[in-house]
Design a protein that fits this description.
This protein has 449 residues and is α/β, with parallel strands linked by helices. It is 38% helix and 14% strand. An 8-stranded mixed sheet has the order 3-2-1-4-5-6-7-8, sandwiched between helices. The chain has a 5-stranded parallel sheet with strand order 10-9-13-14-15, with helices on one face. A two-stranded antiparallel ribbon has the order 11-12. Strand 7, helix 7 and strand 8 form a beta-alpha-beta unit. The termini are far apart.
Length: 449
């Protein structure tokens, strides 16, 4: 028989009277907070960055998937951006959406989660539901959240408080999938924890996918992106092979994609980026190694993908050499630095790795990106340049590193003396001097490996 506390919490959820706090208003937290507020909940958005909170209070979004219009009628009415975690003392539900990066040694960095819990504990009320959405290694919720609250507050899980893990599944820039229509995986520390989590998310999301534990939910997220990393690594390796064999990888992939069963297309590029694919497999690999089972296949794919920007640099040097030009002092322009098309996110972008590598090789490197105004390389702020015919003409080579839809690729091809296209963005362009990654080898570069 269920405790009175859980029945009261579920009843408040069903009536829409619970108050929610979202800790971390980044690419995951802000869209989730907005969706909750749209559903009618009173939401406190907590972030340690005063600049983010100030922007939101002015009705300005800093995330491309959330326009300023999406904040209208929410800020100050159902969504309250703050920097002080003390608002948790008024909250029935706390959703944690803080970053989980890697350390310099490529180990999981859970410090943001630990800090969020440490700051939250003094303000938690009994019968509060805590949900972790930050991607992390299997076992994090049971190791870093549940026991810490139990010990510091002398509470019993499933009676005095409830804990779930529900991984974010954000697809930045997607016109098809959003928070509401993406199936929501969730696991709880107890059956009542799970019931509370399903009741809450199920009140405003279309499909719930409950699983038997928080550890299963944590592993599911890592499996999703490890699958992608491994397949991208495979295609990136085959790309180099096709160049050497003398066939076009894009034609091969298009032909393979016509098979209606047993095949899923993946495509090559200058590397992998974003907060998921480059990082999640290493969280899984690290946890598996703790249990004495290294994931060699996963680690190999990661090395392959991280090698790609360096391979692209080698290809650029070879292409310039064929034109009688040296890499030293060559004018190189990168078209796009976001990690994927039509977004402004440069986290883990391979274009930034390539940019730095080309500079180390002596090139004069600049970039243009319609979504990224600037990025910081070490202590230097690198501004985006205006994409026009004069920019393309000024380059020794233009390298397409992100295939943004709004770029005029025909203009680029018409005016650039040499184009190296790592995304197959110029496939429908005519004329010009274009080399596409994965087409027969231009000579001089070593194979990826």
């Amino acid at each position: 028989m269920r405790e009175v506390g859980i029945l009261q919490l579920i009843d408040k959820i069903s009536k829409g009277t619970v108050k929610v706090a979202v800790i971390g208003l980044g690419y995951v937290g802000l869209p989730m907070a907005v969706e909750m507020a749209r559903a009618g909940y009173e939401v406190y958005g907590v972030d340690s960055d005063p600049a983010k909170v100030a922007k939101l209070l002015q009705g300005q979004s800093y995330i491309i998937d959330i326009g300023d219009d999406a904040l209208e009628g929410l800020i100050g009415q159902r969504l309250y951006p703050v920097t002080d975690v003390k608002v948790l003392e008024h909250s029935d539900i706390v959703v944690i959406c803080v970053p989980t990066p890697l350390t310099d040694e490529h180990q999981p960095d859970t410090s943001y989660i630990e800090t969020a819990i440490d700051q939250a504990i003094p303000y938690l009320r009994k019968q509060t539901l805590i949900i972790l959405e930050s991607t992390t290694y299997p076992g994090t919720t049971e190791e870093l959240i549940r026991p810490v609250i139990e010990q510091r507050r002398d509470w019993t899980i499933g009676q005095d408080f409830y804990v779930c893990f529900s991984p974010e599944r954000v697809d930045p820039g997607s016109v098809y999938f959003n928070i509401r229509n993406t199936p929501k995986v969730i696991g709880g520390c107890t059956s009542d924890c799970l019931a509370a989590g399903v009741a809450f998310y199920g009140s405003f999301l279309e499909q719930m996918v409950p699983v038997s534990s928080t550890t299963v939910a944590e592993a599911a997220k890592l499996f999703e992106n490890t699958f992608r990393s491994v397949n991208i690594g495979l295609v990136n390796e085959l790309t180099s092979a096709c160049e050497k064999i003398g066939i076009n990888i894009w034609e091969v992939l298009d032909a393979a994609a016509t098979k209606p069963f047993g095949y899923m297309p993946f495509y090559p590029g200058p590397g992998i980026g974003g907060h998921c694919i480059p990082i999640d497999p290493l969280y899984l690999s690290w946890k598996s190694e703790q249990h004495g089972f290294p994931l060699e296949f996963v680690d190999l794919a990661d090395r392959m993908n991280r090698r790609m920007p360096l391979y692209i640099a080698e290809r650029i040097e070879a292409l310039l050499a064929k034109e009688g030009k040296a890499m030293n002092k060559a004018e190189i322009i990168l078209a796009g630095v976001a990690y994927k098309k039509d977004i402004d996110d440069v986290r883990e972008s391979p274009a930034l790795v390539l940019f730095e590598r080309l500079k180390e090789m002596g090139a004069v490197v600049s970039f243009t990106d319609p979504y990224v105004k600037s990025f910081k390389l070490n202590s230097e702020v690198i501004p985006s340049r205006v994409a026009d015919s004069r920019l393309w003409e000024s380059a020794d080579i233009v390298v397409i590193t992100t295939d943004h839809s709004v770029l005029d690729y025909q203009q680029l091809v018409d005016h650039a003396p040499l184009v190296f296209d790592t995304r197959n963005a110029t496939v429908h362009c005519t004329g010009g001097h274009v080399v596409i990654l994965g087409q027969p080898d231009a000579g001089g570069a070593t194979a990826v490996g």
